Every structure is written in structure tokens, then in C-alpha cells.
Amino acid sequence: MRWDEQLFALFDDLEGQAVARYQLERDAELGDRSRAEYHQVSLESRLVASLGGRLGLEVEGVGRIDGELRRLGAGWCLLSGHAQDWIVRTACIHVVHGASDRSVAEVAWSPLHRLGVGSALRRLAESGVRCVVRLVDGNHHEAVVRRVGADFVEISSAADVLLLIPYRAISAVQSRD
């Protein structure tokens, strides 16, 4: 092999090493960036990506609920399963089973995702359906939602007693009809 061929072979080898080193550094940097950016991913953004899928939710004061994730709003989600609908406050979710690997950035959410739990409860009040209001402490009230305030719901219990329940005390509302 002539000296110029040896020189070019050496340059090719050095270039190959440089490309390999660059690729390793780039892969490490991308991994670091992705881990650093993941702290901005919220539970609700993962749930938005899971809309239409089957999930299992472990909910404070209720236990596990399985069903299809139908809707998501600010601080709540609607899960449908076994001929019942569940309005679940996301603050009361302890564990999510079966969520999508993806997330959807908040800027891509529908304006409907900004509706609070009061909107979902107002729909129950308008329909007059019987439901079970599940509380974070494990208690529950079979009732009909009558009116919805800014931070509470007014229900009429089975004994026709009016009760006021703050949103923060509610973990989930289960339809009965």
C-alpha cells in the first residue's frame, strides 16, 4: 500500500471514529434532554392521549374502576363501563392502569378539556338521574344532583334530605340509571 493510500485510510478511520463518538454523545444528549423535559408532562396530558382507551383507575375512597375513558376536563374525567358512568376527580386518582405511552401537550387540547367538574355535575343535575356520590373518606350518598355551586354540589338523598358537599370531599360520582 502506498503512503498516500495509507494516509487516506488513516483519515477514513479517524473520520469513522469521530462519527461514532458524535453519535454516542448525541444519543446521550437526547436522552438527557428527554428526561429533563419529561418533568413537564402532567397526568392529565397522559390521560388526554388515552381518550377512547380502556383504563383502570384506583380512586381514593372508591377502589378500582375499569372502563373506557370518554371525556376529560379540568380536574375530572368520565369513565364508562358496565352500564355505568363515573365522573372521577383526577386529584383522587392514586394509580392509572393501561394509559397510553404518549402524552398530548396542553396547547393541543380541545377547549372542552378546560371545563371543570361543575360542568359534568350540572349535566347530572339537568338529567335528574340517580347517582352515588362517593367521598374521599369512603362514605357515599345515593342521591339526585339538584344544583351545582361554585365549589359544592347540592344533592337530594334517598330520604329526600338536602345535602351540600364541597367538591374537594368528592372522589367520584357513579351513575345509577
Produce the secondary structure layout.
Layout lengths: L2 H35 L5 H7 L4 E6 L3 E11 L2 E6 L2 E6 L3 E5 L19 H11 L2 E6 L4 E9 L3 E6 L4 E5 L3 E6 L2
Description:
- With 177 residues, the protein is of the alpha+beta class.
- The protein is built from 3 helices and 10 strands; from the N terminus they run ααβββββαβββββ.
- It has a 10-stranded antiparallel β-sheet with strand order 5-1-2-3-4-10-6-7-8-9.
- A hairpin with a 4-residue loop joins strand 8 and strand 9 (162-166).
Summarize the structure.
The model has no long low-confidence stretch (mean pLDDT 87).
Number of helices: 3
* Uncertain runs: none
Q: Which radius of gyration do the C-alpha atoms yield? A: 26 Å
Mean pLDDT: 87
Q: Please give the alpha-carbon distance between the first and last residues.
A: 88 Å
Number of strands: 10
Portion of residues in beta strands equals 35-45%
Largest pleated sheet: 10 strands, antiparallel
Structural class: alpha+beta
- What letter string, H or E per element, gives the SSE order? HHEEEEEHEEEEE
Which term fits the overall shape?
Answer: rod-shaped
**Largest beta sheet: strand ordering:** 5-1-2-3-4-10-6-7-8-9
Query: How helix-rich are the residues, as a percent range?
Result: 25-40%
List keywords for this structure.
single chain; 177 residues; alpha+beta; 10 strands; 30% helix
